[in-house]
Amino acid sequence: MRVKLNRKAQVSLEYMVVLGISLAVVVSVLLVVNNMINASSTKVSISSAYTAMEGVREASDFIYVTGHPSKIPKSIFIPKSVVEVNVSGRVVRFRVELASGIGSSYTDIYAVTKGTMRGRICSGPCHEGNYKLVFESIDPRLDLEDVNITRAS
Is the pTM of this model over 0.85? Predict the structure, then answer.
C-alpha cells in the first residue's frame, strides 16, 4: 500500500513539473508576441506621421516652385499618435507619441522645405483625422514668408 502511494505522489510531482515548464514556455511566447505587436504599432504610427509630414512638405515645395499667385488645397490625414505639429521657417515638425510601458516618450519627425512657411495646422493638441489645408503663395513684394498654410473651413 505504501509503494502505491509513493508512486501516485511521484506521478503528481512529475505532472506539476511538466505543467510548470509548459506555463513558462507559454508566458515567454506571449511576452515575445506582445513586444512584436508594440514594435509594429510604433512603426505604423511613425510611418503614418511621416506620410502626413511629407504631404505638407511636398505641397509647400510645389507652391514655392510655382510662385505667386499659386494656391492649392490639400487633405492631410493626421494619425492619432501625433500630438503636435509645428510649422516655422523652413521646417515642418511632427511630434509623435510612442507606445511605451511606462510614461510617455516622444520622437520628432521633420522635413526641410525649399521656401519659408507660416501657418498653423493644429491649434493646440492635434486630433486624429483629415485636415483640409490651403497652401498659398505670398506676394514676394510683401517681403514675408514664401508660403502661407491655413485650414480650410
Answer: no
